[in-house]
Amino acid sequence: MDTTQKAVKRQASFCNAITFSNRPIVIYEQVRLKITKKQCCWSGALRLGFTSKDPSRINPETLPKYACPDLVSQSGFWAKALPEEFANEGNIIAFWVDKKGRVFYRVNDSAAMLFFSGVRTTEPLWALIDVYGLTRGVQLLDSEIIPPDCLRPRSFTAIRRPSLRRETEDTRLSVSLCDLNLQEENFHVMAAMCPIPQNSLNSQHSHLLPSQLESDLRFHQLRGAHIKILDEQTVARLEHAREERTLVFTSRPLRINETIFVKINKSNTSRTGTLSYGVTTCDPSSLRPSDLPYNPESLVDRKEFWAVCRVLVPLQSGDILGFMVNSEGELHLSHNGASAGMQVCVDCSQPLWMFFGLHGAVMQIRVLGSTLMTERLGPSAPSSPTSSPNSPSVLCNGVSDPILSTSVSGLLGSSLSGTAPNSPVSMPESPLSHSISGSWNDECTICYENMVDTVIYSCGHMCLCYMCGLKLKKMANACCPICRRAIKDIIKTYRST
Fold it and tell me: Does the keyword Lipoprotein apply (predicted)?
């Protein structure tokens, strides 16, 4: 936190940065934040909400790593994740609660949107801000009052009222940050994302497809409430609602090294937004339509493994996308024959269903079929995120930070599968051994003082001193600082020289 108590910056990792306002927020008062720092190696964004618990009476050590779902599962806390596309540096986010307990938000000068509801307004409410994932730093701006007579979403007008503004330093709105006891991280610079060439409007790309496609892939019958199934391989989005439940799933799990080809059958270029996609270990047959949210990013808070991404370029009618998960757990994307590189690392030790969310310009998609790796679309994708300049720097849900130190490959036997419920993902392999990758990194990645002398089981990473390892192991949901895999044990090592 800076000296003005107006700006905060997360010190390390992607979580453990829950903050609060220093005073209660009144009904219809906008809490206004400016995003000052974005860190593209993570996914997920700000979690915003309110609490009826006085933060000055909360022990920082009792705060969980995540506002969602850990903190909101406790009585007196309400929060939700901001959509990732709004988590850009310079954006000003405003959120407030009305007398009915409904929380609204707006981005810059956009219309107000309903965020969530159910907040108890009979008690004092403090603002809750979780500086999470992509969002690394925020600055608190002066608050504003929304007139109570402007109750309809998307028609709010913020009115600056100097008489309602708190001018003294003691009563200004500020945030307080718990002591994380972590040092500034030292990330390696990843390769910049290679731009993907755009195609002309309504052009067809059937010539880019392999000569033979497997045709057994269908859309699952489970779908969002605002999706219409035109046939087994084609779905369309209904246009009557702005915030829509538009998720669809594949009818069967993916095969390793299988490329799925999806065509944008219809788009509306006058609208903003693009296609969401991802993979999950959750069998869609076990879900109900009411389980499917408006925002796909909120699925990562469920107990199953979910990885959610968005296509980062505008999509037009006729575009063809290719999705492939290889044996290393890397999900690769291609767009009209051009490889976009690896998008996310996923847990491929379990069956994975693919899902799509139709947003913005994307009105209708069709599954064209699939093929194995030998007939993949476009040039070969890199086998690791750092092996090619085409690898993106923006990794989506389920990706840990770049590797900060080396570890022993294959140590303690093969890695065990599975991901802790609230950890992003377990990396499929440990990095190369010392003899191949170079010198050891001697600094513990937590205290930055002691020498690394401990191996984490079962991922095999060597990035901690023994004392930090003991402390970390005792924490709830303890996970490796490198790959976020659950810690089963720590083993002290001894070097021969």
Answer: yes
